[in-house]
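User: Could you write out the 3D structure of this protein bound to cobalt (II) ion? I've included everything you need below.
Assistant: Certainly. Input first, then the structure.
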Amino acid sequence: MTNLITNQAENKPYSRQKWQQGYQSQPNEYDYFIDDIEGKIPEQLQGTLFRNGPGLLEVQGTPLKHPFDGDGMISAISFLGNGKVHFRNRFVRTEGYVKEKAAGEMIYRGVFGTQKPGGWLNNFLDINIKNIANTNIIYWGKKLLALWEAAEPYRLDPKTLETIGIDYLDGVLKPGDSISAHPCFDPASDLDNGQPCLVNYSIKPGLSSKITIYEFALDGSLLRRHSHVVPGFSFIHDFAITSHYCLLLQNAVSFNPFPFLFGLKGAGECVSFHADKQSKLIIIPRNNTDESMKIMQTNTGFVFHHVNAFEEGEKIYLDSICYDSLPQVQPNKDYKEVDFDGLDPGQIWRFKIDLKSNNIDKEMIDSRSCEFPYINPNNVGKKYRYLFTSTIHDSHGNAPFQAIQKLDLSTGKKQVHSFAPTGYVSEPIFVPKPNATQEDQGWVLVMVYDGNKHRSDIVILDSENLDKKPLATLHLKHHIPYGLHGNWTSEVFL
Ligand code: CO
């Protein structure tokens, strides 16, 4: 209550109450052509935007402690190229979703702190976690896959979004295996005669961590797989690639399993970040033959997401979003009552890694609080110039994300498109124009929650003139709760 009063009194660009509404569950599944459109949809924009995120913020009436524990719901926005756009959303019918729905009650504990009702006794030694398939959605090897980093992917029908079931990637994974929700798409792999390839990793955490790298060809077949053991517990949500390396940043965290095992806390609440300790940068050659893995140390703060990485001679550049501290999940505190002013902003840093001298130089590229970095997919793992992020309305401090920023790394020039005071943004997805000659020629697609109307919009921004009026705003008939990650494919499945 204190926060609410403070925010309104200080005349912030957002309303906490309206921001909170974006965390209401969306239990309905829709299927319709969008007819409420402002502006003009570019004809060349043809394909499907898939997005994933928690669709339910409660399970059978029990509210979640953290939105990351919410059941995955996929949105598919199909651009037919003739001005027509179709919307569909469906929950991933995971084993847990189906079981809890049938039982009419919460059966599983959440990784980020959601406990079953009944106190610690009912959660004691319950390590049976639910694969919620809520973090990312990719289309690769003719398969649409919903990803969650602690378990196997779920495969869906790209046309209907019906759940087909757990997918073991043609036998690459075994039951109980996991694969990260943040694969990198190499648009032109040096190791495969310039063919595109998908690189992903899995982590088996423990006192030491086993990292496995997987690379898949366009048809979904496995090209390379190799495993490496590194000392210490790992919390690695994302990674980066260059032409020849995978880069994984092992945050300086420790894990105390006891409160989790005793049913007092969720696993995510048992991770502690040590700001005084250095992170370990794990550099794994993608072609696991000529060189061995390298581990270097530096202070990075806490990192969830990387922007990109690339090689230049003997040097590797890694751009990441860094926090001075990991916002700890506060027991007995509602995530919707978070004190934004008390949170450290995510800021973009560049790490220049010298493989010869084993030295890492770093510099801050942008101090403005941001997340959900996205770049032109043709530049992943390569030298690049432009990056897009979700950011706050003001240039400093911290707040809900209400704006999209484009940053030109060669000139430092920025363009910001703010949806304040009523709009709250999700990840900006960059789609290059067909036959583009410049890296920033394309569109930025962003789902924006409209706090005044309690519904969501799909907004198409001109990426060359991001700060100008949107090219088109597509009004959905309902809201979609704040999502996590998504991807674009030029295929239309309708
Ligand atoms: Co992520």
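DSSP finds five helices and 35 strands in the chain.
User: Perfect, thank you.
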